[in-house]
Design a protein that fits this description.
The structure is a homodimer of 478-residue chains. In chain A, strands 13-12-1-5-3-19-20 form a seven-stranded antiparallel β-sheet. Chain A has a six-stranded parallel β-sheet with strand order 7-6-11-10-9-8. In chain A, strands 18-14-15-21 form a four-stranded mixed β-sheet. In chain A, helix 2 runs antiparallel to helix 6 (121-144), helix 3 runs antiparallel to helix 4 and helix 11 (231-248) runs parallel beside helix 12 (263-276). The longest helix of chain A is centred in the first third of the chain and has 24 residues, at 121-144. Chain A has 17 helices and 21 strands. In chain A, strand 16 (389-392) and strand 17 form a beta hairpin. Chain A has helices at residues 10-22, 49-57, 63-71, 77-84, 114-119, 121-144, 161-173, 182-188, 198-202, 207-217, 231-248, 263-276, 292-300, 312-315, 428-439, 444-447, 461-474, and strands spanning 28-34, 44-45, 91-95, 100-101, 108-113, 149-152, 178-179, 223-225, 255-258, 283-287, 307-310, 326-333, 339-341, 358-365, 371-378, 389-392, 400-403, 406-410, 412-417, 420-421, 456-459. Chain A folds into two domains: 10-119 and 325-474, nicotinate phosphoribosyltransferase (Alpha-Beta Barrel); 135-315, Aldolase class I (TIM Barrel), CATH 3.20.20. The interface between A and B is large, with 104 and 104 residues.
Chain lengths: 478, 478
């Protein structure tokens, strides 16, 4: 495993030395990871907690790291000696991977000695921001594909090897069926997909020769790329010719892939040609600059496409290439273990943080089993399911509703306790299934692409009272 | 070093098995990496060649890779046995890192046995696409900053650890002075930057306490974040108070950082306050969602900002999150070593590839030492600098000009020969310097952000003739 301990912003270490000097470095602090709304975020799919756990368990400065830090000339030997023995010993509460999550709710909380909590900020954000971003994009793309197979094809346009590999993992959490990335297939057990490129076709004297050679090499997995020269005049007829030869030898062809041109028109014409030739069971796979918008448009146009290879726009989340998750101090503890809540003020009310160590609950209507709202409480608050529960908007508090006949679920589990994971890694396909099931518990009004209803993320009265009191106290300027 | 041999699309391996089966796997092939124009690309800064070289030198399937491929059930034992001994033995021609490059010109060419050339396609594209993208974005941002210090601060919003780390490397090639990413600092010798976060300020009873504690810990590197509560009423006055104490002890403060609010107004007011207090030599550093557009706008507004911390929009290249570089077959060789040029047709004239193994020259005017045009030739063509050279547009051939008093430079060197690098890695700061110098050889009309002139990338008559002949021959449909 790569040692990513230095994958941190320098200021985490300068602050670390400052806390060390002040004797504050082992004070316990609570930091929350959450993200803010954005016109493109309707809901998000949490991902990356597994890699975050691996990172935390592996945290240590090796000799070369310390030698490098020493070379910077800004750290004391005392402090470097302290770092030499540093490991992560804190607790981490987090939503499950595949969980549907919303702005403002703490999807991950670190409770750890100050210096550790500060040091891990950057890498936790990098990991969680990235995978949550791609899982969310994949979820939207798969929703547009309405149950069709979606293959992740973006590696060559990914922002580096990790972006391609952990991006493939996140894409599968969000609903993709497979990836072209063999490395991701090996690491995470994701089904891998792919057959041929244009270069294969160009490497034979004729297109038919190229198709025939491929069919002979992979008689039971024969999916032919038909757009190298002319899709309808050359590619599809040649594919049909080779499919007939294949069938004569007792093999059924898989289908064709279209990678350019007017995919709506070409797929409809190709479908007719394949059907007329008796290959009704072949699939038509499309690729080329696809995303949730183009897939929806192609479906509206009646394109005859069975499976979708989605590349650049998925693996980079092209219309929103960063989630913008933040990591904010929520509390510290005094010598007696009493909580001192912390708040970050802002002139924009929505940007004021929620103070104190918190829990997040999801409230479901028992009659429909659909999610009604998320509900953030101070840590340890209990919710009585047998009593009506008043929900109110955290800013416009006159917007309120009372719910009855509901159940609540604590959205977060203790992921890491005392620096060690509490449970083994979950198989990726189980996470995908969990995500799909939980998404099914949301009314489509909340998850649709166009002008969705805003799902409620409310505060408990106790948390709201604390926040109001702190805003009142600290919000008066100097 | 991580073994990234499996960082490839599955189809590279299925085609590999196909070529192996056909006995074509060791035929020599030539593939070009190039990218197409895009409304946001005026020029690009090539980067990633060093990591591409490391990847190629390290290419090998280890036992666990082969076991994984075997488990897929689609590869023959013959083929897996062949992969077991596979290494990269080919040649790679590439532009230098830091080179200013343009659409359509082959910035990297692989000449290798077919199976190897195909296998390395994906990872080469991933590496070159990513680093070239970020180096180009950085170059534009640094141009907007007009010589001010630019710090790369994006790690937490990067698309994974590699995106943050190799992105920082690329950002420095494009002109950034430093990075917050300590891991990148260690790996590449990049200067690292950073002091404190809002959490530091929130962790002390008062802002002044927080500033004072930091000043005591880093008396000679005291740059204070002044926007936690109220920049002008609280942050700057408290910073000045602590700066006075620092000076009384014989240390000069570094300055302040603004991370939110109206950076134009706040920086102007803060500058006045600092100057009036006798701290004219302190710097004002700004951060928060910056890019080339906002930096230019802030400069137009007269913001008093000395250094720029640029994060999300740089590290993700937010307005163009993928470069879209491609890898296209240009030629194969027959048994006698004769070149068989290859072409990929398209209904869009600009998308038709340039056939054959090629060279790329840059033509400079001797009087001004400015670049006039790039000039793509068939491999081995020579250009006589003592004779007038006719340049013509590769599509609209009536657009032509004759140049005299020029010099030419072969833009590419032999990066890898027979699978081994031809020269040691260059120090990153040397690459940055090279990039800046070469950029200085372009008229600003070609590199400016708004409506730039299109820099000419032309074909030699021999290459144009070959291309025309092949389009004529293959372009007639079925």
């Amino acid at each position: 495993m790569r040692n990513l301990t230095l994958l941190t912003d320098l200021y985490e270490l300068t602050m670390g030395q400052g806390y060390f000097r002040e004797g504050k470095h082992e004070e316990i602090a609570v930091f929350d990871v959450f993200f803010r709304p954005n016109r493109l975020i309707t809901y998000s799919v949490a991902a990356g907690m597994e890699q975050a756990t691996e990172y935390l368990e592996n945290l240590h400065f090796d000799e070369s790291d310390l030698a490098y830090l020493r070379s910077l000339g800004i750290f004391t030997e005392d402090f470097l000696g302290y770092l030499k023995n540093l490991h992560f010993t804190g607790d981490v509460y987090a939503v499950r991977e595949g969980e549907i999550v919303f702005p403002y709710e703490p999807i991950l909380t670190v409770k750890a000695p100050m210096i550790q909590a500060q040091l891990v900020e950057t890498a936790l954000l990098t990991i969680i921001n990235h995978q949550t971003l791609i899982a969310s994009k994949a979820s939207k793309i798969c929703a547009a594909a309405q149950g069709d197979v979606v293959m992740e094809f973006g590696l060559r346009r990914a922002q580096g090897a990790d972006a391609g590999t952990y991006g493939a993992r996140a894409a599968v959490i969000g609903g993709c069926n497979s990836t072209s990335n063999v490395y991701a297939g090996k690491l995470f057990g994701i089904p891998v997909a792919g057959t041929m490129a244009h270069s294969w076709v160009m490497n034979f004297p004729t297109e038919t020769d190229a198709f025939r050679a491929y069919a002979e090499a992979f008689p039971d997995n024969c999916l032919l790329l038909v757009d190298t020269y002319d899709t309808l005049k050359s590619g599809v007829p040649h594919a049909i010719e080779v499919f007939r030869e294949l069938r004569a030898k007792g093999h059924e062809p898989k289908g064709i892939r279209l990678d350019s041109g007017d995919l709506a028109y070409l797929s409809k014409e190709a479908r007719k040609m394949l059907d007329r030739a008796g290959f009704e069971n072949t699939v038509i796979c499309a690729s080329g600059d696809l995303d949730e918008y183009s897939i929806r448009s192609l479906k509206e146009q009646g394109a005859k496409i069975d499976s979708w290879g989605v590349g650049t726009k998925l693996i980079t989340s092209a219309d929103l290439p960063a989630l913008g998750g933040v990591y904010k101090l929520a509390a510290v503890y005094d010598e007696d273990g009493a909580e001192i809540p912390k708040i970050k003020l802002s002139n924009t009310t929505e940007k004021i943080t929620n103070p104190s160590f918190k829990d997040v609950y999801r409230i479901y209507d028992r009659a429909t089993d659909k999610a009604i709202a998320d509900y953030i409480t101070r840590h340890g608050e209990t919710i009585d399911e047998s009593e009506p529960l008043l929900l109110f908007h955290p800013v416009d508090t006159w917007k309120r509703m009372t719910v009855t006949n509901f159940r609540v679920r604590n959205l977060r589990t203790l992921l890491v306790k005392g620096g060690k994971r509490t449970s083994p890694a979950r198989p990726l396909m189980e996470i995908q299934k969990y995500c799909a099931e939980e998404k099914g518990r949301f009314w489509e009004e909340y998850t649709r692409q166009d002008m969705p209803h805003i799902y409620k993320v409310d505060l408990s009265p106790a948390l709201y009272a604390l926040k109001s009191e702190m805003v009142e106290k600290y919000g008066k300027g100097d």
